[in-house]
User: What shape does this take?
Amino acid sequence: MKHGIAKYGLKAKRKRTNSQGSKKNIKTKAIEDQKQETGVTEWLKKEEEDNILREFDLNYHFGPCVGIGRLARWKRAYSLGLKPPETVLQILERRSSEVEESIFEKYKNLI
Assistant: This one.
């Protein structure tokens, strides 16, 4: 096989970089990949938590969800012995800004 010709008769292109530059590029790319994976993981975790909260909002077993915040609804259901999911309480404790929201808060302005 002749120099410069790859398998199937196509010419191979070679990138010319010095050894220092390629090591830096590899490290930088690895760091960027890790940041991207972390971002995706965080996004997936948030989506999963949103789904859990949405299911809690739409489950009428724990009482009506219109006009009452999620935490207040969870506490009311717990005091009535309805056994609301502990995961909902854990999510609400982490997300203090969404304690007073329900799924219908997003659509309040449409009415």
Notes: The chain is about 55% helix and 0% strand. The mean pLDDT is 76. Residues 19-58 form the longest helix (40 residues). Residues 71 and 99 are 5 Å apart (CA to CA).
